Amino acid sequence: MGLKWCGNRPYIIRYVVIVLICVLELTSTEAVTTAEEFHFTHNYYNATIYEKAPGKTYLTPTRKMGIYVSDPTLEVKYRIFDGDKTNIFRAEEYRVGDFVFLRVRTHTSSHGVLNREFQSHYHLKIKAVAQVESSTTLTATADLIITVADRNDLRPLFDQEFYNVTVSEDATLHSNIVKVTAFDGDIGINSEIYYSFRQWTNTFAIHPTSGVISLTGQLNYFQQKEYELEISAEDRGPKSSETRSYKDRNAIVKIWVTQKNFFAPEIHVQRLSSFQENEPGETTYAVLNIIDKDIGQNGQIGNVRILDGPYSEHFKIVQGPIKGDYDVVIMESLERESLPHGFNVTVEASDLGQPPKISQSIIFVDISANDDPPLFSDDVLFASVEEIAPIGTPVIYLHAKDKDVGRSAEILYEIASGNDNGLFRINKNSGLISTASALNTEINDNVELVVNAVDRANMEAIRKGTVKVNITVVDCNDNAPIFNISDKNVYVDENLPIGSEVYKVEAFDLDQGENSRISFSIANQNSVPFEIDHFTGVMRTTQVLDYESMKRVHRVKISASDWGSPFIRRSEIILSMHVRNINDNGPLFEKVDCSGYLSREAPIGTELVVITAIDFDNDIINYNIQSGNDDGCFEIGITTGVLTLNCSITEPEGSKRNLVIMASDGVHDSEPVFVTLTLVNNKRNFQLSNSDANIQCEPTNATQELTKQLQLSKQRNEANSDDDLIFETTTKVPNRHAPVFTGRIIFNVSESVAIGTTLFTVSTIDPDHGYAGMVVYVINDGDPYDQFKVNTTDGRLIVMAKLDRELIPRYDIEIIASDLAEVGSRKSASTIVSINVLDENDNAPVFEKTSYDVSVSEGILINSTIKQVLATDRDLNQNGKITYSLLAHADTFAVNKASGFITIKKLLDREMVEVYYLPVKAADNGSIPLASTATVTVTVLDVNDNIPRFIPEIYNVKIREDLPIGTVVTTVTAEDQDKGENGRVTYRLTYGSDDKFQIDENTGVIRITGKLDFESRQIYNVSVHAEDGGDPALMSACVINVEIIDVNENLEPPVFSSFVEIGYVKENLPVDSVVMYVSASDPDGIDDGRGLVTYSIRDGSGLGRFSIDNNGTIRTKQVLDRETTSHYWLTVYAQDRGLVPLHARLEVFINVIDVNDNVPQMQHPVYYMEITENSDEGTVVGQVTATDKDENPSQSLTYKITKPRSSQQYKVGKQATDKKKKNKKKKIIIIMKN
Length: 1234
Fold this sequence. Notes:
The chain crosses the membrane at residues 12-29. Residues 1206-1226 are annotated as: Disordered. The chain is an all-beta fold. It is built from three helices and 94 strands.
């Protein structure tokens, strides 16, 4: 209780604590949907519908389509506003709980309108519209992509109705013959085509998917010339009543068998007498008789020709008068020397079969003897030799060939012309051209020799061949540069700018190439005011020259060097460079500033003063009065500078005269001299000094400067000054020493040494410098067959021809070494090189025949002798002793190393090796054994000792269950390595086929003969036997595991009775409580005991809170609370058990039913209320509010006061509520009692 004041009088307020009990309150949320909340679940949806669907067929979407709406009073409408130009579809709405489904179906009038082949997709735009209030409209849009699913409404059509093909009767088994092609406008499995024969055949097979027809049986032209195959094309899709009513449109394949060309033409040669060499005109050499055992066109001869080969162009074939006869005609003369033992010509004949058969025959052509001239490889041969090469240096080997034999083939060489200067010689036997005289490129840089090669036949039959040998003499820098200067005096103007060209030095070198290239330089010891371009020889100034003060003549030493190697050559010349004076100085007066007195009475001609000038250039000076002499009263000597009076001045107008005097050398003018004359009256005036004129001038230093310059010039131009210090040099190098060999050389060399081998390097010592110390070498004697050469510059002794110890066992070769000093001062020395030729085992054994042939049965006994080989060796002793050995198959055969007998070491097997090629080696016993080989060909004859063997022994094949009858499953192959009948194999099925398969006994091709069904049987284990044709026959077996592949016959997905189901469940039920049942049926399913359909929950707000079993029972997975979530959405999938599973989708709405599991709750735990005393009964003291989270329209809240005792003074009441309102709260009013 508290105390308060009212005016001046206090009053008492009592506080009463009232406890209220609330029994129940209904609560509900008033939901209002906003524009942001009003939208489709997705911007894009995908759905399918089969083509030719009847009217009022609903689309099958891939996910839930529509809009969540929390306001139960909000009405949503859908409509299509774009993408349905032909008005096929209709949009509908269907509300369940808080979701308004979008459902799209075909119009009633659109029965069968959809055609996938015409339009496979539709893109619809859907708009949703809802009216919130009279003034507010909500809209949303979404895109719907409709895929028109294919129905198997089309049958395959062949691209052509008839096929014609020609096949030879010898066509290879399993070769492709023709391909048929059909097309189906459907897609997927509906467009996949199987090809099959309408009638059974073992001769051909058709691939079920590619349509390729192949050969599976041997053709025989005489048994059947024509085949007509009717081909059926069926798609793999389900057959509707519509497609079954279509008429079959099969293709016809006609196969024409052509006769095999069995026999090749037979060529019989009738050879005539031998052909004479150089016989004129066309001559028949042989007659051919050609026949063919085939009949018809295959037996007719088509073409007879000479094959390309040596000398084939000399022959032609001419058909004779009798059918089948042909003449071999020689068109041109032939020479025996081209092939002294004759040669072969190959004749080829072909028939008119398709393809033609060809046979060949070799005709030996024998030509009687005649001779030919020796021939060189080319008409012109080229060689080169350095001009420093000593006499006897080898230049080039010539080699001519003579097709003759014997003495007519032996050749001698001679130089016929071109050697007028005797520079070269030729060895008549070896054909080696070498130098015979000193060479000089500057005189003869190229020599063309004409060389004859003459055979050694009888005098009346001697023939010769000719070749031109072009020899280039290579320059070796044996000339120094030569100056091309006629006058050694060069004049240079003074005052030229630095770098001015004043002269060009010219020189030339008689050598060639780099040896003639010249560089210039200045060789003065002291510097000179000039420089020279090293390459052009242009001389330029390096400073400005002055004639008056500098040296006037410079002696410049010019050096010209070539670029030769190994040493350069140089020449020098001294040029006198004269500095030429030019007028570059003006006159200088010796006195200036003249002034004085002149008597008025002075007579005309009076000499007043002498004004002279000097010029450093020593040029002629002229004087003149520049100004002040307008009246001509004065005159100056033009060359003397004497100023005189030239008029009477007794009555002058003024008392002074001012003259300006100038001096000029014709180019330059001097500075002016001013002369001031004061005129006086009396001659005796003291200023005149007793003369008519008294003039004084100021002297200059011009004379002294000129004197100094003359002395300096004299000093600098004295003879033998330091600037002209030049050391005289000489370009000639003295030759004081002769080359010295290091000693006598003796060594051994094998007769098998390779041509081009360097045997030894001859070395010398020559202390001289430059070319005087450079040594060249040459063989002078001891090499009669020109088998060696010594390198000109480095002394390497090289083998040039094959050595033969039996011909020359030792060589004593004289080598001369000469330096390259100036001609006339050269020095030389010689030495003997002794070469002992060592014997080698250079003769290999030779077999009496190069090849041997023998045939043996594969059953021959071990150690049986089958052949003997024999070889001989020209060498003696161990070099001639022969040992035989096998180079291959030594595990199967053996050869006696001494006698050459060949025996069997192990049993033979023709199936492993039918022919052995035995290389037999015959080797001597030399230190380096030589050997030769011969080939023994052993042919093994067959015995039936092999069973047929399957490759592989087990076949694993997978085939589809829906393949058409007649399809080839596989081809088994058994190989029998025997020949003939022993190797011919036949096949048969022994068990396991169950009349579903059949085998071709000759080819092993296995075909389907009965309809297969995966559901009935998945595996066939088929046994195949293979038997050969031997006596007795041998047999083997293999197993074929045929696995049947299930074909997707699952064409229809499961179907729910409705697209949405509604279920109810009370809150607080235990886990695993049953909520509801859903069920789907499978139109084409087969119940295998596991059930047709399996169920799963894959989406929705209740994902994870519910489960479903394969019976479609939905159960709770957790305890539900309505006050937390009042409802759930589930997306249930029903999936069949097909090879390619199909599914259906069902949306499930589960409503959670309320249970009274919540007590009412006051809005505040304590309420404070006030009331004035003496208040009337019924006065409202305050209001308390309570809520209840449960939802039950039949329940209401009641309130009562429980404490304190004074609560009798109060009562609580309730205000009536409208149950239609969403917010159903009860208000409590406290009223005071009286």
